Amino acid sequence: MTIFEKSVKGRKGFKLPEGSVSFEGKDLPDHLIRTRKLALPELSELDVVRHYTELASKNYSVDKGFYPLGSCTMKYNPKLNEFLASLEGFTEIHPYQPVETVQGALQLMYELKEALCEITGMDEISLQPAAGAHGELTGMLIVRAYHLSRNDTKRNVALVPDSAHGTNPASAAMAGFEVVELKSTKDGLLDVEELKKHLNDRVAVLMLTNPNTLGLFEKDILEIAKLVHEAGALLYYDGANLNAIMGRFRPGDMGFDVVHLNLHKTFSTPHGMGGPGSGPVGVKQFLARFLPVPLVRKSKDGSYYLDYDLPESIGRMRSFYGNFSVLVKAYAYILTMGEDGLKRASEMAVLNANYLRKLLSKYFKVASERTCMHEFVVDGSEFVKKTGVRILDVAKRLLDYGVHAPTVYFPLIVHEAMMIEPTETESKQTLDQFAEIMGKIVDEAIKNPDLVKSAPHNTPVKRLDDVTATKNPIYRYQ
């Protein structure tokens, strides 16, 4: 029931004093004058509190249960980080304040930037982009600026593997590039021979995720980097899967020139529901002059300042300096974990994924038999043929067992795909329980397929008509 349906005429929760401002005699434009009474629900304060508390209790979160999302690391968000980000010195500052009054915030940003440079093997980083895809666009605009600075105007092609995140081709196109898709090998890796066929003097960049979207490490990455650079192009790193290699391998050491990171994935800051996010972009030194302004710098006297003196900068990518509270949480996470902790997190993410992959291979075909990194993909095509139950149905049925559904039907190169990422924060007991639930659903699909096809049954909202909801969305109460 919506809060409007709970409304009772005449019921009040709070009464404001009469307004002291009168608009009589003011020449207001017609479109700013309300022609009918504001249609707000009428409830007591207790009614409102109970309504939203009840809604909140129905929300699913990583605090409540297993969240094996796949492609988007949903690790536990330490409450310590939330506490630190809420400190008065961080929350009660304003980006228009003089830099001498926000030295602590600038120091945090500078030290975070330095830490991210060390983790990625980059030379300079901008914290300005507000999300992963925003970072992608920033990185691709830097690639474009680099080639134009050399008067290499014919380089307008971005090579993107068919296993790439969907935002990769979109970001490249927004930056003005023509996107050319590269086919993967049957093993799910970038086809080096296919890459060679497409490398020419029109190619500006290869966008690559390593490990890739199937959770597989691109073992030929050094050869790939060499081929791309010999062709005069740049190598771009989508940092969505950094959680698998953090502390073990650095994109910069693999030959990548530009990196975007998702602080809202790898570094434990909240993620989902559209934000908040943070997508810093790192570059090798020869590209640093193109980064967005301003950059956080440290003076010789130890003070911090914002540097706008970058004549070749691509300009601002947003107002101010990123989502600051997210930066605080990522900084706290890195300091808490330390070098050994970050490395351990990656090791446990890979261990958990491979353990779960082995457990689930009893019930489903796995897209690749190779040792995976932090995630793996189930190929449900044989399961669908056998039972008539789709992978989407399995995902819906998981909700009845109190587990959030993983990503389905992605990557597109796997038919009836389910992408699973357990993350490093989950225990063996949780993984065993998840595998047991999946086994039960497989058994249900064989014995009573209609039960799975009509799921979920125990959730506050039953199965929705996704097509109608997409084509004819209703955004407000009518």
UniProtKB/TrEMBL annotation:
E.C. number(s) listed in UniProt: 1.4.4.2
Annotated ranges, domain Glycine cleavage system P-protein N-terminal: 25-302
Domain (Glycine dehydrogenase C-terminal): residue spans on this chain: 345-446
Enzyme class: oxidoreductase
Cofactor: pyridoxal 5'-phosphate
Recorded coiled-coil stretches: none
GO cellular component: cytosol; glycine cleavage complex
Record-level GO BP terms: glycine decarboxylation via glycine cleavage system
Residues found modified as N6-(pyridoxal phosphate)lysine: 265
GO MF assignments: glycine binding; glycine dehydrogenase (decarboxylating) activity; pyridoxal phosphate binding
UniProt keyword list: Oxidoreductase, Pyridoxal phosphate
Domain of life: Bacteria
Reactions the enzyme catalyzes: N(6)-[(R)-lipoyl]-L-lysyl-[glycine-cleavage complex H protein] + glycine + H(+) = N(6)-[(R)-S(8)-aminomethyldihydrolipoyl]-L-lysyl-[glycine-cleavage complex H protein] + CO2
SUPFAM superfamilies in the record: PLP-dependent transferases (SSF53383)
Claim: Oxidoreductase is one of the keywords in the record: yes
The protein's role, per its UniProt record: The glycine cleavage system catalyzes the degradation of glycine. The P protein binds the alpha-amino group of glycine through its pyridoxal phosphate cofactor; CO(2) is released and the remaining methylamine moiety is then transferred to the lipoamide cofactor of the H protein.
Subunit details: The glycine cleavage system is composed of four proteins: P, T, L and H. In this organism, the P 'protein' is a heterodimer of two subunits.
Family: Belongs to the GcvP family. C-terminal subunit subfamily.
Protein name in UniProt: Probable glycine dehydrogenase (decarboxylating) subunit 2
Organism expressing this protein natively: Pseudothermotoga hypogea DSM 11164 = NBRC 106472
